[in-house]
Amino acid sequence: MTHNTAADDRDAGLAAQYEAYPYPERDPQDENHRLLIGSPSHLREVDYWVFGAQRPRSQALRVLVAGCGTGDGAIMLATQLARVARPAEVVCLDRSEKALSIAQARAKARSLDNIRFVQGSLTELESLGLGLFDYIDCCGVLHHLPDPIAALQTLEHHLAPHGGMGLMVYAPYGRTGVYMVQDALEKLAPLAHSPQERLDVARRVMRTLPATAWLHQNGNFGDHLSGGDAGLYDLLLNPRDRSYTINDFLALLDQAGLEPTALMEPARYDPGLFLPDPRLRARLSTLPWQTQAAIAEDLAGNMATHVAYVVRKHAAPEKPDPLNPEAVPIMREIPGAELAKQMTPDNMLPFHFGTLVVPIPLPPQTRGILPLIDGERTVGELAEILATRGVSAEKFKHVWQESFGILERLNRVLLRSPA
Known about the structure:
- This protein is of the alpha/beta class.
- The protein folds into three domains: about 200 residues, Vaccinia Virus protein VP39 (Rossmann fold, 3-Layer(aba) Sandwich); about 55 residues, no CATH class; about 90 residues, no CATH class.
- The chain is built from 17 helices and eleven strands.
- The strands form three sheets. It has a seven-stranded mixed beta sheet with strand order 3-2-1-4-5-7-6, with helices on both faces. Strands 8-11 form a two-stranded antiparallel sheet. A two-stranded antiparallel sheet has the order 9-10.
- The termini are far apart.
- One of its GO terms (molecular function) is methyltransferase activity.
- Keywords: Methyltransferase, Transferase.
- This is Methyltransferase.
- Pfam families: Methyltransf_12 (PF08242).
- InterPro entries: Methyltransf_12, SAM-dependent_MTases_sf.
């Protein structure tokens, strides 16, 4: 009984937090000059990583954003769908009236008519009668819930056949220092105190936090620490804040009957990228991918979250063939010409995995291929253009397979879905 009361107290504290300090702190006026982009729920990622670039773009898409907060993911996806006139409905669910009002104001500022808002808890999804969804976004929510497995199972029950989800949970090593300060603040500013009182204590502590505190050494939280009251509260005063190693996260998915189609970015979970020693790479190649992913997390030390696209077990779509002459490559976000400019003279692409920068080797011809990728040209047409530059069909096939394999794992080049 005591455990349940404590759990209820934490949940009540969480509800109070997001009414007092809706997170992330957003001004609807900013919608006039920027669209925040991220993962999960970028439309091109959903098309590729969830549906294997096989689901027609003309097919209506039902989306649930479960715990939408102030709306970052929902506004991004609804805007991307509207820009290309895709038939869709984005349902935003959150129990915080204040957070929903901000998301609604952001949608209004963009004149989005493909989005609707429902106040309620995803733990009560069964009673809301919202139906099934082709895609469900649950980003930054599960790790705050009393029973994450039950919540994830509820979401799985609301997936349409062949549907999938985009998830984000906290990871422990990249949050080094956070939990130490959280523990101290829970002693100094107990949950029973009002959110305003707790925030005042946190501000005072942060003004004179000892230079030796691990949080000072962690470069992952500039956006939280400079994100106003909501950012500081969410980072340091959240009443319930779990974190998952990649193995913990995969176990959570398994218990809910789900499996990942991709961890974001896939290359981030390849320790061979930052362990160039040939003997180490040979040893790594004998290990299961889950073990390699865990090693990458252990050694990199800066993974503060895990983002994944997931589907029901044994339901992953077959990966499209990048060598199919009819396939249409598409840049995820950065134009190909811009990405090519980032390559160094020795054909390396410096890639940022959070605060870790890793040089990624690419074939020299990649520099010439990238600017040609416009989301309309087929692979066959790319081969024809390269042929005029003296690159044989066989050479192109080899170069394109290697280039696409690398850039896909970096989540930079994907394939377009059919019309």
